[in-house]
């Protein structure tokens, strides 16, 4: 890591200062909380950690702002800003190698999708040329090391993409030497070995291609105790049975799977208001882009309460994967009683199946859908699933693409699924979200009040967005006036509703999925004057056993088990917004049986 101003390299400071700068650069143009910085710099933070961070922030500010040298352009000089318990490094994206790399890789994907394969290769080569060695090699901080591994993964993925395009362009001879070096450096990376076998085979070097497979087989079995992937095995078998020295090149330099296919583009618009989900985004991208040893389709199930931002995260991940899965994007909402048979009809039409050839039954449609998806690298988003039964007929059976499922419930009955529970948003990120809607000047004008307003939003991005939209529509309102509304329990849910941003409706969509007795219990919990309760107390509220009914409420995220309460008697918690909604429903329906 180096800082360059003009033609001069500036000293980046000692280990802690370099680690701090690395964290800020990895989160360029976003704010990073002091707690997150501290956990990244120390495995066991000292008591003086916050003071040390503040001191090094001051030194960095002096270094970056007070160099005494004129920047090449007014926008090139970074600005180190302190806000609400965190710090942000505001930079020109063209001044940070990592941001330039990511922009060029994304542009390479756009060029490839447009059929401009040779230009895509050039763009990827220039992006990869920015790397001069191991990422953050001179930074010794545990959190930065984890981030560096993620950057290295993106570098290798870009190399694999570039080589795949070059193979499709018929440049197999030119990439053999590079692939040998890459496979030697990354022996467990099967995509690289697959490319090496393809390049050797197409160069008329069948024996060497077979030897590359056998070397990989020994490496996988002896080193990891795993068999090579199905894709490697099938290529090995094809090479053994093949009489031809090379495979036919795909037409016009386009990826094989996209030629002649209908390519649906169903994804909704990416949210501009998604903040604070970097750890979850990185975790899912690393999983979905990483090596697939099982050769099962990759499915991620994102679970969370109403309004926590599951759909926004899934759509963001899908958009980030568009370049990795060029054969289409499918999206469907399955909330409530949506019929999988009708959804499959729409999917099949989007995949190019003529209306007269679409089967009638669910089983036949599902089978044809899986056959159509078998050779595609496509992404599928299934939003707001209520049960595993809704999801199963829609899941592709072959590897190569990615599926994202969002649900209130944890869909644990689905096999081979990566589960992610989406937590509530932290205060700093909620204030950032409010700033994006309302504006920095208005938020800064009344210090302390934004934190009190977002505290009433209970970590729900939907609530913050509704609050922000209402404030933006009333520029003549002070934050103090609006705070009075959200602190009044009789007006709070109304204050968190604006247009189609409606917290009450989000909670209601969980409530209506409950059976009548579970609804009765939920309404009764609204009468509590506290957040926590036991099953025994819940049973007393309804005059009967509430064990399973309470778990029904947990399933749809209307109540939560209290962490750490197992040892002294399991307790549950109903958050304030849900308790207010329960009181409303009790007043409307009566506190007794379901009306």
Automatic annotation (TrEMBL):
Protein name: BTAD domain-containing putative transcriptional regulator
Homology family: Belongs to the AfsR/DnrI/RedD regulatory family.
Keyword Transferase on entry: no
Organism: Polymorphospora lycopeni
Cited InterPro entries: AAA_22, AfsR-DnrI-RedD_regulator, BTAD, OmpR/PhoB-type_DNA-bd, P-loop_NTPase, Sig_transdc_resp-reg_C-effctor, TPR-like_helical_dom_sf, WH-like_DNA-bd_sf
Keyword line: DNA-binding, Transcription, Transcription regulation
Signal peptide limits: none
DNA-binding region: 1-93
SMART domains reported in the protein's UniProt record: BTAD (SM01043), Trans_reg_C (SM00862)
Keyword Transcription regulation listed: yes
Upper lineage: Bacteria, Bacillati, Actinomycetota, Actinomycetes, Micromonosporales
Domain OmpR/PhoB-type positions: 1-93
